[in-house]
Design goal:
Elements: H1 3-7, E1 20-21, H2 29-42, H3 49-62, E2 66-68, E3 71-72, E4 75-77, E5 85-95, E6 105-113, H4 120-132, H5 135-143, H6 147-154, H7 168-185, H8 192-200, H9 204-217, E7 221-223, H10 238-246, E8 252-253, E9 260-262
Parallel strand pairs: 1-5, 3-6, 4-6, 7-9
Antiparallel strand pairs: 2-3, 5-6, 8-9
The structure holds zinc ion.
Length: 266
């Protein structure tokens, strides 16, 4: 298995109608995750039901995977072989996934993927997020009457291993990682596993930059209110500041000090 090969896999090759639950009714996030894990188990796509559930819930504790606008992508690493194991559930009444926008989740995409494939999830996630950010597309998924229709709607989402700048999920994960490391420096204990999980979601070059910045400045991600880097107080160029303002989903790097810049901490 190599990255070149996976790069070419469209979601349609990973998702059949049997992996879609069109009308979930669970009361809790845990139950919803258990039901979707059960789908993968019945399709013989995962080696262990209990381990899959435990890993996904552990990841949810680190940071909820609800993206906002009624969508959540719970996920974890598990030895599933060459291809990610994916199940999709629609929940008409909506379920609380701890979304930051406070909205109930109506569409749940469960993804389990091989631990050996570093960074893959961010790429896959990026493609899905792009599709699911589109309100028209979400409505289509809600309207589709058959499980085959739902699977077909998602079929052409591609895994893009060549995504350029880090996306919102990576920004959030950098902030999470920084919070954990700061707590750890203040002698908080038992954070190793959470840090390991957060690091597993970031690509190697982002992580090495993050580590260098933490080492050098004691912080890696800073706010840039009014276009001023809070790390080094440099006024960013107006073009750069305006791009940041209009693309809050992208993480930027200060041209002077190299810190990751965000508009503001959530
Ligand atoms: Zn700076």
């Amino acid at each position: 298995m190599n990255a070149q090969y996976l790069k070419e896999v469209p979601l349609g090759e990973l998702l059949t109608a049997d992996q879609v639950l069109p009308a979930m009714t669970n009361r809790s996030k845990r139950q919803a995750i258990e039901e979707l894990v059960d789908v993968l188990w019945k399709q013989e796509l995962i080696p262990s039901k209990s381990e899959a559930t435990a890993r996904v819930l552990e990841r949810e504790e680190l940071a909820p995977t609800a993206l906002g606008s009624g969508v959540a992508i719970p996920h974890a690493r598990l030895p599933v072989g060459d291809r990610p194991a994916i199940a999709i559930g629609r929940h008409p009444a909506g379920i609380d996934f701890g979304a930051t926008d406070g909205e109930l989740v109506h569409l749940i995409v469960l993804v389990l993927w091989e631990p050996a494939q570093a960074g893959l999830f961010n790429r896959l996630f990026g493609g899905l997020v792009g599709k699911l950010a589109n309100a028209e597309f979400r409505e289509r998924l809600v309207r589709e009457e058959s499980t085959a229709g739902i699977a077909a709607a998602l079929a052409d989402v591609r895994i893009d291993m060549l995504a350029g700048r880090p996306n919102k999920c990576e920004t959030d994960m950098l902030i999470t990682l920084q919070c954990l490391r700061t707590k750890q420096r203040a002698k908080a204990r038992g954070l190793e596993r959470q840090i390991e999980l957060a690091r597993a979601e970031l690509s190697g070059n982002l992580l090495s930059r993050f580590d260098r910045l933490m080492e050098h400045f004691g912080e890696a991600v800073v706010e840039a209110p009014g276009g001023i880097c809070r790390g080094c107080n440099m006024q960013l160029s107006s073009g750069f500041a305006s791009e940041m303002l209009h693309h809050p989903e992208t993480v930027y790097v200060c041209e002077r000090c190299g810190r990751f810049l965000i508009q503001q901490m959530a």
